[in-house]
Each structure stands twice: as C-alpha cells, then as structure tokens.
Design goal:
This protein is mostly helical. Helices cover 82% and strands 0% of the residues. The protein has helices at 13-76, 79-82. Keywords: Membrane, Transmembrane, Transmembrane helix.
C-alpha cells in the first residue's frame, strides 16, 4: 500500500478496506498455488503408485502364466524325453 505522503491517521475507511482486501486476495492466491502444488504432488505419487502396482501385477501374472505353461508341458509331455 502506498501512503503517498499521508500519515496513518489520515487513512480513510476505503483505504483500510482496500488494504485488507488486497491482503485477503494475496492469501487466496497463495492458498490456490499451495493447493495446486499439493494436488500435483499427490497426483504424481498416485501415478507412481499405480505404475508400480501395474508393473508388479504384470510381472506376477507373467510368472504365473509361465509356470502354468511349464506345468502343462510337463503334464502333456515327458520333459526328460525331449532333452
């Protein structure tokens, strides 16, 4: 706020209201920025968690599928005869 040579005592009510609303507006903007950063951080963390979970499930299912294939081959064929 600029006082332009006036003392604090000569401030009008509208000056005080303007000063308070400017401060409130600054707080609102800061709050929005902070919330946006928190949201981005949570979004990234959730994305990383989802990716890790998907990768784990893919590898687990791949391993299970491979084990089932090997078991099926062993059941249908005598593996020692193939070697």
């Amino acid at each position: 706020m600029r006082f332009s040579g006036r003392s604090h005592d000569s401030l009008t009510v509208s000056d005080w209201i303007r000063w308070l609303t400017e401060r409130i507006a600054v707080c609102r903007v800061a709050k929005r920025i902070l919330l946006a950063k928190v949201e981005r951080c949570l979004s990234f963390s959730f994305s990383l968690f989802s990716f890790s979970l998907s990768l784990f499930l893919f590898l687990f299912l791949w391993e299970a599928n491979t084990s089932l294939r090997v078991a099926t081959l062993r059941r249908n064929f005598d593996v020692e005869d193939l070697i």
